[in-house]
Amino acid sequence: MKLFKWRIVPRIELEKLRDLSSQETQSPAVRSARFDNPELNAIAKDIVQHRAALQAEIYALQQELDATCSDFAAAQAESAEAEAERKEARIEHMQTDFIAAASHELKTPLAGIEALGDALQMALDDGNLEAAINFVAHIKAETSRMRSLTEELLDLSRFDENPDSDSVSNLRNAIEAALIMPRKTAEAKRLGLRVCIDNSLQGALLAKISPTDLSIILDNLLDNALHYTEAGSIELSLAQGDSKKLWQLEVKDTGAGIASHDQHYVFDRFYRADRSRSRDYGGTGLGLSLVKKAVERWGGTVTLKSELGKGSSFIVELPIA
Q: Of the spans 152-161, 240-249, 264-273, which averages the highest pLDDT?
C-alpha cells in the first residue's frame, strides 16, 4: 500500500469511489476519465491489485484443499483395503491354527485305536481273552472320544452361520432334560446336584436361543463341573438379571477350581487348564469354547469366577424372549 498524506475528500468523490467498488474493474484509461483525484486513483489501483492477488491466493488454496481431500480419500481407501487384508490374514491364520489343532486332536485317538487294534490282535493270537476284552473297552473309549470331538467340530462350524432370530427355548424344560445323565454321574461320585429356580418365576421361562444351542451350553457346563469335582456339590441356578431383560443361568461347583493365569484362556479352542486330567476323562478342550460361541451368537455373555482349590462358577446371561 502506498503512503500518502491524508486530506478531506469531497462527498461527491467518495460517492464515485463507492461506485467503483461495486462495478467491474475498468481500464486505467477509463478510471482516469472518471476521477481527477490522483490519490484516489492510486488507492483504487492498489485495491484492484490486492483484490486480484487475493483471488489468486484463494484459487491456489482451493486447489490445495481439493488435492488434500483427494489425498485423504485415497488414504482412507488404502487404509480400509489394508485393514481388510489384515482381517483376512487374521481369519486365515485362525483357520490354519484351528485346522492344525483339530488335526492334532484327531490324530491322538486314531493313533490310540490303531495301537489298541494291534494289541487286540496279539491278545487274540495268544488266546488271552481277558486282555482282548480290556483292549476292546479301550478302543470303544477312544472311538467315543473321537466321535465327541467330531460332533463338537461340526458344532463350531455351524456357529459360523447366522442363527434363526425367531428361535425360542423353554429354560425350565431344557434344564430338566439336561440333568438326566448328570444326576446318574453325580450319584455315582456321591456328589450333591441341586437345581435352584427363583420361586417368583412361574410358567414357561422363555429365552431367545435355539434349543440345540441351549442344550450345548447346559451339557458342557454340567459336564465340566462333574469332571472337575471330586467332592462336595454342583448347583444349577436360574434367575432374572437386574435389568429384567436377561436370564441369569449359573453352574457352580466345589471342584478343583481354575488358576487365575488360566482363567483368561479357558474359553479358547483346545485349551485345557489341566491337560492330564482332561485326557483322563476324554475331554477335547472344545466344551467351554462351544459354550462361549453358543452364548454370544444370541447376544448373551458368559463369565467365570473361580478360585484354585475352591471351585468355579460359570454365569451365562441370555436375552428373555
A: 240-249
Query: Cα–Cα distance between 317 and 182 in angstroms, integer?
Result: 22
The fold for domain 1-158 equals: Helix Hairpins (1.10.287)
Ranges in the chain annotated CATH 1.10.287.130: 1-158
Residues contacting 305, CB < 8 A, separation 6+: 312, 313, 315
Domain with CATH 3.30.565.10 in the chain: 165-319
C-alpha dist (Å) from residue 16 to 5, 21, 29, 43, 129: 20, 9, 16, 13, 126
How many Cβ atoms are within 10 Å of 186's Cβ, its own excluded?
20
* Bridging pattern class, strands 233-240 and 192-197: parallel
Q: Hey, what CATH class is 165-319 in?
A: alpha beta
Tell me the torsion sign for CA atoms 115, 121, 125, 128.
Answer: positive
Q: Is the pLDDT of residue 32 over 70?
A: no
